[in-house]
């Protein structure tokens, strides 16, 4: 049976009433299949929704949602003990909207940044991961690494598109060949229906890519896209970034930390690089002076011992001192921890 996926018609729907058509036990808990659902099942790089399922005054958590293909049933994994639910029972399903909207911001932002790298430099996205602390994409430029200036330009380009509040539409096609009527950035052949997410409008949209995920209806809802860093990865550029609320939280935390460091050094945040360079130079200078002083003291001690003992006695005294120091260290009682 195919579950009616309400999010495909209304990406902002957060709850619905549905009927259970199947129940199975998973690790001692009920997993339920319903006639319809607002839950997005994990796929396309986007995590599944979480939320609640309630019936008869009892509320249980939906910890994950998974499907059996884009046209198959959606299973809701709950924390309800096995045997709680039964087929034919009516239930209320509700997603954690805050989590869904964050995922929508991040997923659309990823599309747009990948599109920026493609439009500006011909880069192809060969990998995408939406993690807890950041998102990564692997941009293939035929072995070439992106410069800092190119990263800055891509960030400026994508944020200009975000703030332009462009329309975001989802177009459905019966098959892959039909979807090529749109200028898709990346061709990924597969069977069955195809949904293409278009940012902007024809004939020259900002981005156009096949995707089964959920996205806001306008780019302005992404808020911002912030690139953190870029590292080489298997001949490609692994770009670390985030979007929307997650990016704002990260930038806010970084700003507070920088302000605290600046206060410690009694300078403005803009002056921190120069101040830290000055501190590094001072430390390097002190290390050099310390090495010179240690060499000077060593030579003075050597000259003094030669004066007292002569060369032969000095050698014996040095050997005796070294052996004694070794024995003291070898048999010294272990220091007690505080």
Describe it for me?
The chain is elongated, with a radius of gyration of 32 Å. The protein is of the alpha+beta class and 338 residues long. A hairpin with a 2-residue loop joins strand 2 and strand 3 (29-34). The strands form 4 sheets. A 6-stranded antiparallel barrel has the order 2-3-7-6-5-8. Strands 9-10-15-14 form a 4-stranded antiparallel sheet. Helices cover 38% and strands 29% of the residues. It starts with a strand and ends in a 7-residue tail after the last helix.
Q: How many E-type strands?
A: 15
Secondary-structure-based class equals alpha+beta
The rounded distance between the terminal residues' Cα atoms is: 67 Å
Oligomer: single chain
**Percent in helix:** 25-40%
Count of runs of 4 or more consecutive helical residues = 6
Largest sheet features: 6 strands, antiparallel, barrel
Radius of gyration: 32 Å
Major β-sheet strand ordering: 2-3-7-6-5-8
- Fraction in beta strands: 25-35%
Q: What is the typical, i.e. mean, pLDDT? A: 90
How would the global form be characterised?
Answer: elongated
List low-pLDDT spans. none
Encode the helix/strand succession as letters.
Answer: EHEEEEEEEHEEHEHEEEEHH
């Amino acid at each position: 049976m195919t579950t009616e996926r309400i999010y495909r018609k209304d990406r902002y729907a957060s709850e619905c009433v549905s009927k259970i058509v199947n129940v199975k036990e998973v690790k001692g808990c009920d997993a339920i299949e319903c006639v319809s659902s607002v839950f997005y099942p994990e796929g396309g790089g986007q995590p599944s929704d979480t939320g609640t399922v309630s019936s008869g005054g009892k509320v249980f958590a939906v910890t994950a949602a998974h499907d059996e293909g884009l046209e198959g049933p959606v299973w809701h994994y709950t924390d309800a003990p096995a045997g709680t639910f039964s087929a034919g029972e009516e239930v209320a399903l509700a997603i954690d909207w805050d989590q869904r909207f964050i995922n929508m911001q991040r997923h659309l932002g990823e599309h747009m940044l990948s599109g920026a790298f493609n439009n500006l430099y011909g880069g192809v996205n060969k990998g995408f991961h939406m993690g807890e602390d950041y998102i990564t994409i692997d941009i293939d430029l035929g072995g070439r690494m992106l410069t800092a200036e190119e990263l800055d330009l891509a960030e400026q380009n994508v944020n200009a598109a975000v703030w332009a509040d462009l329309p975001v539409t989802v177009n459905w096609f019966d098959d892959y060949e039909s979807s090529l009527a749109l200028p898709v950035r990346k061709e990924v052949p597969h069977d069955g229906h195809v949904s293409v997410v278009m940012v902007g409008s024809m004939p020259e949209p900002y981005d156009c890519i096949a995707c089964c995920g959920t996205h806001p209806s306008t780019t302005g809802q992404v808020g911002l896209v912030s690139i953190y860093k870029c590292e080489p990865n298997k001949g490609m550029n692994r770009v670390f970034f985030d979007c929307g609320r997650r990016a704002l939280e990260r930038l806010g935390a970084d700003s507070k930390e920088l302000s605290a460091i600046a206060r410690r050094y009694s300078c403005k945040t803009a002056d921190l690089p120069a101040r830290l360079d000055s501190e590094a130079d001072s430390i390097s200078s002190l290390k050099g002076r310390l090495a010179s002083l240690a060499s000077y003291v060593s030579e003075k001690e050597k000259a003094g011992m030669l004066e007292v003992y002569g060369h032969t006695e000095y050698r014996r005294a040095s050997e005796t001192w070294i052996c004694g120091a070794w024995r003291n260290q070898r048999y010294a009682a272990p220091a007690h921890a505080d």
